């Protein structure tokens, strides 16, 4: 029995994400939780003739939704409007994510938890701190979904150089906001980076780091990326399930994790940077994180991007941590 719960399932991301996950035979029960309209979305999806059962759970039924879940995906919360940063969402989304994490503690303490709600750089530490407080923290099972940064990088790179297939994976490290998003383009084939002028490389890097803003601006007050995020979220969730349930080996995705998920691999990085969380390529295994891949040798250009990312990332992490440790 593989029960996957989507928290925020009736939202802009939640609906298409639920639709994509409904297509997977790895899932036997898709439980849709939202404070509004969960029943309607569930009734609609439940008519699709794939294997999983679909149930809807409204405002008062969080515990019922989360009971014995295998995997919990969290796109609950408010999205940005033009002029806002992801950090501006902290005020509302921090409490939403904390309450959902408390629900996980009560109902499915061994679940894999996949966080989409922004600001991811802070909401993942919030989930981890709630779990630490209750003595159930397993860093191999909590993930910040930064896959959209990888998806965008692949797409934008292929637009700059049509020789590069849009399915080519780009390693993106750091975090999920502005300067903390660090694409390692020097690892791409066909001498990709060397073929670009400094201006072209700057423009491409900026487009990847601020891709979210393009969508926020185009939607003009009606929210942020939902469809591309649902695609990225489904890709991540299904890769994890393929490894955990399907036993597939060698599956790798960039994801924002607590570095204790692989203490040996990350000890010297942690000591050098003082960071407890970082997005990096992770290989999945039956326990979730099987290993965190070593940070590849980076170019001087990428080292500067990393140096710019570290202070902001550190501030985002401590904001999330103190939200839990300094509350009564
Ligand atoms: N990690 C990433 O790459 C990305 C993250 N996001 C983030 O995802 C979040 C959701 O975005 P959208 O789906 O566009 O927003 P939305 O407003 O369309 O949907 C959010 C849903 O969450 C529900 N919700 C609110 N409070 C809840 C609670 N306490 N429990 C359960 N459900 C609750 C709402 O009723 C709504 O249906 C935002 O924080 C956004 O910034 C968006 C795009 C990419
Ligand atoms: O930009 C936003 O607010 C939503 C998001 O995280 C993204 O599209 O990468």
From TrEMBL:
Gene3D superfamilies: Lactate dehydrogenase/glycoside hydrolase, family 4, C-terminal, NAD(P)-binding Rossmann-like Domain. Substrate binds at residues 80, 86, 118, 152. GO terms for biological process: carboxylic acid metabolic process; tricarboxylic acid cycle. Signal peptide: none annotated. It comes from the Eukaryota. It is an enzyme of class 1 (oxidoreductase). The keyword Oxidoreductase applies. The keyword RNA-binding does not apply. NAD(+) binds at residues 8-14, 34, 93, 116-118, 229. GO terms for molecular function: L-malate dehydrogenase (NAD+) activity. Its EC number is 1.1.1.37. Residues 147-323 form the Lactate/malate dehydrogenase C-terminal domain. Keywords: NAD, Oxidoreductase, Tricarboxylic acid cycle. GO terms for cellular component: cytoplasm. The active site is at 176 (proton acceptor). It catalyses: (S)-malate + NAD(+) = oxaloacetate + NADH + H(+). InterPro entries: L-lactate/malate_DH, Lactate/malate_DH_C, Lactate/malate_DH_N, Lactate_DH/Glyco_Ohase_4_C, Malate_DH_type1, NAD(P)-bd_dom_sf. SUPFAM superfamilies: LDH C-terminal domain-like (SSF56327), NAD(P)-binding Rossmann-fold domains (SSF51735). Homodimer. This is malate dehydrogenase.
């Amino acid at each position: 029995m593989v029960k996957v719960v989507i928290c925020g399932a009736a939202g802009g991301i939640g609906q298409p994400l639920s639709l994509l996950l409904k297509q997977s035979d790895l899932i036997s029960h898709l439980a849709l939780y939202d404070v509004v309209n969960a029943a309607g979305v569930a009734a609609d999806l439940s008519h699709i003739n794939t294997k999983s059962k679909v149930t809807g759970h409204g405002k008062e039924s969080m515990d019922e939704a989360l009971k014995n879940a295998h995997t919990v995906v969290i796109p609950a919360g408010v999205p940005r409007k033009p002029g806002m940063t992801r950090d501006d969402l902290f005020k509302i989304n921090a409490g939403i994510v904390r309450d959902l994490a408390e629900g996980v503690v009560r109902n499915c303490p061994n679940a894999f938890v996949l966080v989409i709600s922004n600001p991811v750089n802070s909401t993942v530490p919030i989930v981890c701190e709630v779990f630490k407080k209750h003595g159930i923290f397993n860093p191999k099972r909590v993930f910040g979904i930064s896959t959209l940064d990888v998806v965008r990088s692949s797409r934008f790179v292929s637009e700059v150089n049509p020789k590069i297939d849009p399915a080519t994976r780009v390693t993106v490290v750091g975090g999920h906001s502005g300067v903390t998003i660090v694409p390692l383009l020097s690892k791409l084939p066909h001498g990709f980076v060397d073929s670009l002028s400094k201006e072209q490389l700057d423009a491409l890097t900026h487009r990847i780091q601020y891709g979210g803003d393009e969508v926020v601006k185009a939607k003009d007050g009606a929210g942020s990326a939902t469809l591309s995020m649902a695609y990225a979220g489904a890709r991540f969730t299904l890769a994890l399930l393929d490894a955990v349930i399907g036993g597939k080996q060698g599956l790798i995705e960039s994801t924002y994790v607590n570095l204790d998920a692989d203490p040996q691999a990350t000890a010297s990085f942690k000591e050098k940077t003082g960071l407890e969380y970082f997005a990096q390529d992770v290989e999945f295994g039956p326990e979730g994180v099987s290993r965190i891949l070593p940070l590849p040798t980076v170019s001087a250009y990428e080292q500067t991007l990393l140096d710019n990312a570290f202070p902001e990332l550190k501030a985002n992490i401590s904001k999330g941590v103190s939200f839990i440790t300094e509350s009564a």
